[in-house]
């Protein structure tokens, strides 16, 4: 095995071992894709059993299974090192988007390998990332005499529904799920190490009015007009000032030229301001009737530098004065970040630099992942995974060479973190 070749540097031997595991990595990704685990409905029992079977092939591993609701199965696997030390967690989620509508050119659960790509629902989000993790821990388990502490794998059965029965439950109830750092293979780009994520606040609004004939508007109160005024106030939250740490602002600015071509023009600005997306509106039953009711729901995203208390105060200020309007927050969590100069961020950057021959950038993440939960529980965390192509759409795929590279980065970063403490 290359890891036993003392004539080559250990980092090169670790990369060579990942290359030697290429077939396992590809086949594991295909096998995971082939087992459906859509959320909704959220039953991941079959894919959890498959993942547990793959983990059980590792000598000396301890695996615990936690079913937090019917079909919501979470796994926690622990691999001890040569002695006491730090704990590094590899986190992933087993659930995926549903197959959905639209025309696939390959079987959605086929794990088709074609032209250097692996296709299938959930291959990018995030069964390829899980395969990279499984490959890394297989290799590192055989080297446990060279590192100390514990290597932990947490596979959550509930991420697409915000993780309350998955990673959050594990962090609240299973001590081994926490660690000194966490590395997640969720979607992203091998050229961007994601160290933080925006926060979220979902709001529902309801307006009531007085019905009347549309020709006799003087006899009624239009609920849609009342709702519209409230939504104008909601959009004013986008003007809230942001006071982010200089290290975060500098990282976002420095990452722009690399990150935006991958994630879309305007990402840097979106990461640094409050955004309000009015996602649904309904009301009224006919054009010639004054509506008596109207409803809307909005998605507010918070950058680092704006907290939930500020958002709630602004909501009270803007909405409480709107006659006939009531509102409520239905889901919320704060923005989170790990300082860009933290060891786990820097080790991931260094590992990616070694693998790719050039340094990736460090940046925030617009969307959510379970990394936010780990940070909320005090665990420094990064996300480093494959580029998602057609995620949530027909013909979802990842690139095989990126998958191999991600597995190398995970292996190198984890070994460095545990062996050089």
Automatic annotation (TrEMBL):
The entry's keywords: Hydrolase, Metal-binding
One function term, GO molecular function aspect: hydrolase activity
Domain Peptidase M20 dimerisation: from-to ranges: 196-319
Transmembrane regions listed in the UniProt entry: none
Protein name: Acetylornithine deacetylase/Succinyl-diaminopimelate desuccinylase
InterPro entries, per database record: Bact_exopeptidase_dim_dom, Peptidase_M20, Peptidase_M20_dimer, Peptidase_M20A
PANTHER family per UniProt: ACETYLORNITHINE DEACETYLASE, ARGE_DAPE-RELATED DEACYLASE
Hydrolase found in the keyword field: yes
